[in-house]
Specification:
- The structure holds two protein chains of two kinds.
- Chain A is globular and about 40 Å long.
- Chain A has strands at residues 3-7, 11-12, 18-25, 34-40, 47-53, 58-60, 68-73, 78-83, 92-99, 106-109, 113-117.
- In chain A, 0% of the residues lie in helices and 51% in strands.
- Chain A has no helices and eleven strands.
- Chain B is 0% helix and 50% strand.
- Classes of the chains: A mainly beta, B mainly beta.
Amino acid sequence: QVQLQESGPGLVKPSETLSLTCGVSGYSISSGYYWGWIRQPPVKGLEWIGSVFHSGSGNYNPSLKSRVTVSVDTSKNELSLKLTSVTAADTAVYFCARLGLFYGQIDSWGQGTLVTVSS
Amino acid sequence: EIALTQSPATLSLSPGERATLSCRASQSVSSYLAWYQQKPGQAPRLLIYGASNRATGIPARFSGSGSGTDFTLTISSLEPEDFAVYYCQQRSDWPLTFGGGTKVEIK
């Protein structure tokens, strides 16, 4: 059974870069699926950030596209997220996830990690 | 961008009752719609994909229907563990989008 685990700083200063990593176990990223990130601001709904195929090609939320990079490292079986120039509005729980290729359903989620943007 | 509107925002029901949740898309998403359940402090859990296919391990009391722009998630008889927030999500077109959620609370 695939498992995903996010890791990274829980506190980031405004204008700096948020960097998170997601370790994947129980499934090889290079075997397929889309892999991506979703976030959830406190007491709010879900927002898709971006997803990439195991080859590295991907899609991003237009509202974040200029600041986001999602990448996969098949040798480490992990994916990463970089979000530049963060503000308080980027404070959220960040989830890494696996997405089905045909229907795009998110069938596996990490437990989520809270990132707070504050000086 | 395809917008998903969920209704009602809150549904107050008692255990054993039937829950009917709605998700409406701003344009057709064919059958590329999924439903998730989220409990406080937890990641969402996939319930339904492809509009009507139950995910692995999901009880038969959960069912999904619809196509195009109008979709329904039905919980035939609410169990205590079903009180949670439910989200719909489309992947007919990028960007992937979510509905705003329906909270099913105990009456």
